[in-house]
Amino acid sequence: MEKVSRSEKKRRFKLIEAAAKELSVLGDSELIKLPGSDRLKHEIEAVRKTKGGARKRQIKYVAKILQEEPVDGILSFLQQIRGSKLEENRFHRKAEKMRDAIIDDALKEYENCLQGSRQMDIDWHSEVIRQTMNTLPVLDEHEVRRSAHQYARNRNKTHYRELFRLLKAAAEKKRRIPPEQP
Predict the structure, then answer these.
(1) How far apart are CA 141 and CA 130, in angstroms?
(2) For residue 117, what is the DSSP state?
(3) Cα–Cα distance between 120 and 81 in angstroms, integer?
(4) Which fold has domain 6-83?
(5) Grouped pLDDT means (10 residues each) for the chain, 182 residues
């Protein structure tokens, strides 16, 4: 179980709160199609009837209810209906986390190499890269290693951004290709 910082919890809740705000402006026909509980739909209807501070409180309450439900289906629904950027933002954050994990791993390896007075090999053993390759098999491992290696050696932000672009492109490709049926 991963430990989540308080600020990360707040960011996640803000994301869910933005979804709740978007849900509050759905039309009746869209609300009927919403893949959520009747309780959620009832509270969304209540948001429509309120104004000002009461509306803000009601949206926070809807967000709290959303936390208890499977959010993925609701975000996908919003993506289809409203062209929501929420799912895209979550996707973006996931790629950022992968990049940061790879960079942290490369920096640790680089520090170990400096302490051992040896050169960092581009093919260093990295459990993080192996896990990332399992998650995103379309990813070019050599390019990922090269970018992380270059960043660890000279801290040039170009390599940092390049690694993010590689991860994002591979994740986008994986998202668009349907999984194979056995």
Answers:
(1) 9
(2) T
(3) 49
(4) Diphtheria Toxin Repressor; domain 2 (1.10.60)
(5) 77 89 86 88 91 93 90 82 68 89 93 89 89 90 93 92 92 73 46
Report yes or no on whether pTM surpasses 0.70. Answer: no
For residues 115 and 148, the answer to whether their CB atoms sit within 8 Å is no
- Spatial neighbors of 31 by CB under 8 A, at least 6 apart, are 23, 41, 44, 45
Q: How far apart are CA 17 and CA 4, in angstroms?
A: 18
Q: Concatenated DSSP letters for 25-76?
A: T--HHHHHH-SS-HHHHHHHHHHHH--HHHHHHHHHHHHHHHHTS-HHHHHH
How far, in Å, CA of 163 to CA of 58, rounded? 41
Residue 177: C-alpha distances to residues 64, 80, 95, 106, 171 (Å) = 33, 18, 17, 30, 10
φ, ψ at 33 (rounded to 5°): -80, -10
Nearest to 159 by CA among 99, 115, 108: 99
